[in-house]
Specification:
41% of the residues lie in helices and 16% in strands. The protein contains 11 helices and 10 strands. Strands 4-3-5-10-6 form a 5-stranded mixed β-sheet, with helices on one face. Strands 8-7-9 form a 3-stranded antiparallel β-sheet. Helix 2 crosses helix 3 (24-31) and helix 2 (9-21) packs across helix 4. It is elongated and about 75 Å long. The chain starts with a helix and ends in a 13-residue tail after the last helix. Residues 7-64 form the HTH lysR-type domain.
Length: 305
């Protein structure tokens, strides 16, 4: 029997798009098909498996129990096919595309990627930065460094490092009020982004849960690395991960006035599609992190720190 008769690839492709987008219409737009054609392919697939794959409700569809079981395997299958085609084009191990937040990229990756490339001269690296959580099916990326709890459906997640934080500022700014000796002294100075929930967590841990932050001028810079630069320039106090700024601390450009650091349960993770776990360039980067970071894989996904 021909493969096309055994395996309805086109219908499976349509099924994956509909399930991901939760819409026959949007799936048709993505695939360049009419809604009628999309519906026809889904009906063909349902006839092939002998089960309804979607629950059809007014203005909404959702996967049936059978559809929920089928989707992960279909997604993995198409990822494997994409990987195989990439191998044939000699690009699978040619360029590693990493997606990361601006802060992690500038304060850790940029300092260590040279070592990775020395150890893996056949792999070029392209680093993309954004604060947005990417969709691997719609974004050109091999892996990402994300902040969260390590639970993302369809993705393999490896713990990278804890994300703890504490107030930091320039010594000149601290001297402008005669020094910062207790937490409430911080309120005498400009706080960079007082709406950041880290501030409330830190002040609560310091014993001041009711501290007034709403009256402070709100400035959002979009990334911790930008806030650190503003703090170095003396423009205010930033709440930062101190391990990201060893040079600034060593040079005296930044000080950490209190030993207290806090966490919000959200840490850094290496993630990539489950189906691509055996790709050579992903294995190489995974091993690089394992050899470079003692904390790598120190905590399983979903565990409480």
């Amino acid at each position: 029997m021909k493969l096309s008769k055994q395996l309805p690839l086109n219908a499976l492709r349509v099924f994956e798009a509909v399930a991901r987008l939760e819409s026959f219409t949007r799936a048709g737009e993505e695939l360049g098909m009419s809604q009628t054609a999309v519906s026809y392919q889904i009906k063909l697939l349902e006839a092939h498996v002998g089960e309804a794959l979607f629950l059809r409700r007014p203005r909404r569809i959702s996967l049936s129990e059978s559809g929920e079981r089928l989707l992960p395997k279909v997604t993995e299958g198409f990822e494997l096919l994409r990987e195989a085609l990439a191998d044939l084009r000699n690009t699978a191990d040619g360029t590693l595309i990493i997606h990361a937040t601006a802060t992690f990229a500038s304060q850790w990756l940029a300092r260590h990627l040279g070592l990775f490339q020395l150890n893996n001269p056949g792999i070029a690296v392209r680093l993309e930065t954004s604060q947005e959580v990417i969709d691997f099916s719609r974004t050109e990326a091999d892996l990402a460094i994300r902040s969260g709890k390590g639970l993302w459906p369809g993705l393999r997640a490896h713990f990278v490092m804890h994300n703890h934080f504490t107030p930091m500022l320039s010594p000149k700014l601290a001297d402008s009020i005669g020094g910062v000796r207790e937490p409430l002294d911080l309120l005498k100075l400009r706080i960079i982004d007082p709406s950041d929930p880290w501030w409330r967590i830190w002040f609560t841990a310091a014993g001041y849960p009711d501290v007034e932050l709403d009256s402070h001028q709100r400035t959002r810079l979009g990334a911790q690395s930008f806030e650190a630069a503003a703090a170095v320039a003396g423009h205010g106090i930033a709440i930062l991960r101190p391990e990201f700024y060893p040079e600034e601390i060593a040079s005296g450009a930044l000080i950490q006035p209190f030993e207290l650091t806090c966490e919000d349960g959200s840490h850094y993770w290496l993630v990539y599609p489950e189906a691509r776990r055996n790709a050579g360039k992903i294995r190489a980067f995974r091993e690089f992190l394992r050899s470079t970071l003692p904390s790598f894989e120190a905590m399983p996904a979903g565990a409480k720190s």
